[in-house]
Amino acid sequence: MWDQLTDVDEVMATFDALVRSGKVRAVGLSNVPAWWATKAQTLAHHRGWEPVAALQLEYSLAERTIEWEHLPAALNLGMAVVPWSPLANGFLTGKYHRRMTSGAGAGRLAPDRQWPVAVTLTQRHWRILDTLNAIAADVERTPAQVALNWVTTRPGIHGTLVGATTVEQLDANLDALQLNLSADHLSTLEAESNSTPIMTPHSLFSRFPDRPPYVRRQQF
Predict the structure, then answer these.
(1) Domains of the chain, first to last
(2) What is the mean pLDDT of each run of 10 residues along the chain (220 residues)?
(3) How far apart are the first and last CA of the chain?
(4) Long-range contacts of 174-178 (CB under 8 A, 24+ apart)
(5) Number of helices (H) and strands (E), helices first, in the chain?
(6) Hey, how many other C-beta atoms are within 10 angstroms of the C-beta on 162?
(7) DSSP label of 6
């Protein structure tokens, strides 16, 4: 996680030294603002240092904020995105319902079990879960498999971090890669989970939903 103190020049120079010495093969950043990642990548290209290979960021049907800036920046500057919490702290597994988010049964959704901050579940979250459950039943897969498949097939995503406590859970997660959702299923998930920016300048661009994000890769 970004420490908000160390200068970006020092970070990227250290990364470059580690790669050149053979200690690591590639470098990435986790939980940084889009402007910081952009500055780091531009600086690396300008000085001939090892570039950022990937960004590790939270991304799921329930949390799509990185689509506003991080994903366009990553696509433009040649950085892969590796999501963490693709199942939204277990919320998208389908095992939770509205009465289980406090007290007994809340599990990882309990405020004292969440890191780094507790998620405030809204009616939007529950609508997403209802839609996910319906589509999972339609394709005869689990909600977790549908949610994982959605994440791994998004533009700019080159894999995701998953957690499994048993071999069976790991196999089920991997099986999600074999799922082919229909255009109707994808459009339904897109519409229900879409997070429209409410602040400028993002809200200005959201007025043109048919225009793709600026993804032409910069030439250095």
Answers:
(1) 8-89+121-203 (3.20.20.100)
(2) 94 98 97 97 97 97 92 94 93 80 52 53 90 96 96 91 88 92 94 77 62 53
(3) 27
(4) 175/145, 176/141, 176/144, 176/145, 176/146, 176/148, 176/149, 176/152, 177/148, 177/149, 177/152
(5) 8, 3
(6) 20
(7) S
Residues for the chain: how many in total? 220
Round to whole Å and give the CA distance between 50 and 22. 12
Instruction: Classify the C-alpha dihedral 79-43-28-118 as positive or negative.
Output: negative
Give the number of other CB atoms < 10 A from CB of residue 178.
9
pLDDT of residue 187: 93
Instruction: Check residue 212 and give its pLDDT.
Output: 53
Q: pLDDT value at position 108?
A: 56
